[in-house]
Hints:
The chain is an alpha+beta fold and 389 residues long.
Amino acid sequence: xxxxxxxxxxxxxxxxxxxxxxxxxxxxxxxxxxxxxxxxxxxxxxxxxxxxxxxxxxxxxxxxxxxxxxxxxxxxxxxxxxxxxxxxxxxxxxxxxxxxxxxxxxxxxxxxxxxxxxxxxxxxxxxxxxxxxxxxxxxxxxxxxxxxxxxxxxxxxxxxxxxxxxxxxxxxxxxxxxxxxxxxxxxxxxxxxxxxxxxxxxxxxxxxxxxxxxxxxxxxxxxxxxxxxxxxxxxxxxxxxxxxxxxxxxxxxxxxxxxxxxxxxxxxxxxxxxxxxxxxxxxxxxxxxxxxxxxxxxxxxxxxxxxxxxxxxxxxxxxxxxxxxxxxxxxxxxxxxxxxxxxxxxxxxxxxxxxxxxxxxxxxxxxxxxxxxxxxxxxxxxxxxxxxx
Length: 389
Ligand code: HEM
């Protein structure tokens, strides 16, 4: 059984997922202290089962994690109905497909400008980091703009967010746990300041709408932070992991360059092929059966999205990157009541990045091997040095 912080496993978890899936759809993972669902059917069942909930348990010791716990306890992602329904309703209209579709031209202009900067850097220095110049700033700037957070704050919030989400990994060292709390405190403090400003001077931004909605002060802060974090963490890594996949499968990159009609299916395939979010936990609120395994009330089971994404029962040649793949019923955005609220926006951002890259830099290639981040749950790169032919 895999060890979640083993660098060899993190480098390529897919052979281990394949081995486990061939043995059974659900396994007990002693190290994680929970069941893991590794087939597509079992992972989907975990996400959708109404007796498997996102039940928040505070990080301990409590006095050390006041801000981290406050942000999560009041987050729609960490709650079940009726709180979840009320919180999700307060923001769902802003992320509806029709509403975000209106942002597409703005996102495309932004992506174009960032790719132009990348191209200039490559011309000047011979190579440049695609993460730094495109994958990181694009989603962060878009979500900041939507919430009405000044654009120049986005880079600082990305750093804070990166520290906070380390807490979702397993066996995190003490210094990083302390760093996560300090980041949560700074992030919450910043959002509190901003919501006070919006309360006295409302604008047409999402944060002003949240302040006016039926939410407590802590809920407004937690929802703002959740949106700013969820709004970029995964999207950055789809663009990073995805571009790497394309550039290491040169024929797929060439297909994309030749045919703009492939941008849309490529977006789905990149989310499937190298999932940016690998694991989501649920806790049983009653005894539950998943793929013939009993999960007793109070026990946990995780959906392994990366394993589900390579299930041969659902995807032909699951290990093959095929940017024209259709249908592509991946679970990358989850399922059930917590289904990703930002999916329409994320799709627009990824498509805009791919569109701008294929158009402006058709000769794009890796300058060197990218450096991977040493985490399992949030799967991404630290650097992605690229150049052109
Ligand atoms: C490609 C990028 C993205 C991926 C792969 C992704 C994936 C996911 C997944 C798997 C979940 C469900 C978690 C669970 O069931 O436990 C989720 C929830 C969520 N996502 Fe995303 N996400 C992405 C981008 C975004 C963006 C851009 C936003 C912008 C606001 C966003 C906001 C949210 C929120 C608010 C939730 C919680 C929904 C709820 O609990 O009802 N995500 N996301």
